[in-house]
Amino acid sequence: MSIIMHSAEELAVYILKLNRDRGRLVISIAGPPGSGKSTLSDTLCDLINNQISREEAVVMPMDGYHLDNSILERKGLLSRKGAPATFDVESFLSDIQQIYKKDTELTIPVFDRELDCSIPNAKHIRKSHGLILMEGNYLLLKDNPWHKINNFVDLSIFLKVPIEMLEKRLIKRWLDHGLTKEEATKRALSNDIPNANFVNNNSSPADIILDL
């Protein structure tokens, strides 16, 4: 049964008490688009590093593994960007497998929202990073090959957010990107909300449910 928590502070305390005998810990933070995964991951990372007075935690965003728009266009998937099929999941799995090893370091891609593309080798996971906070929509998906991610995760977290709140946040996200109210609403309801429903309905149970 999942543990229910209600704050990043509570979560940080729990993580810092985990058994570290294996060395590096990989923690997945999943949830639908608009649930606040990036904000939580960054907050959690800062809380942990401040508590232990060193930079041991680092965030690994799944968004860096978006396929390029040119590839999505050829595949007819550009309008569905953000759906599972629009990610390079095999490269993501390969990097996770490497990162799970306690004595490895790696450079990973990071998604630039302003440029709407991934920047390769933009972030460095060092050997000294003993807590990997991996965040993304589909980290708990039951579908193949996404379900393989769980083989390299020590603790899974899922953000629980009402669909009405997600809708408001997602519309605001597109408004902030310069879309009109009509365009923002259409973008959110035609792509983001279907993705959110898919995540909620097709994810495996997490070790911790964060109910904010």
Largest sheet: 6 strands, parallel
Unreliable residue stretches: none
Give the overall silhouette: globular
Strand content: 15-25%
Overall helicity: 25-40%
N-to-C span: 19 Å
The total count of strands amounts to 8
Average pLDDT reading: 94
Q: Element order, helices and strands?
A: EHEHEHHEEEEHHE
Lateral strand order in the biggest sheet: 1-8-7-2-6-3
Number of helices: 6
Rg of Cα set: 17 Å
Helix/strand/pairing category: alpha/beta
Can you tell me about this structure?
The protein has 212 residues and is an alpha/beta fold. Helices cover 37% and strands 22% of the residues. It has six helices and eight strands. The strands form two sheets. A six-stranded parallel β-sheet has the order 1-8-7-2-6-3, covered by helices on one side. Strand 4 (106-112) and strand 5 (117-125) form a beta hairpin. Helix 1 (8-16) crosses helix 2 and helix 5 packs across helix 6 (181-202). It is globular, with a radius of gyration of 17 Å. The mean pLDDT is 94.
Question: What's a concise summary of this model?
Answer:
This protein has helices at 8-16, 37-52, 69-75, 89-99, 163-176, 181-202; strands at 3-5, 25-30, 57-61, 106-112, 117-125, 131-136, 155-160, 208-211. It has 212 residues and is of the alpha/beta class.
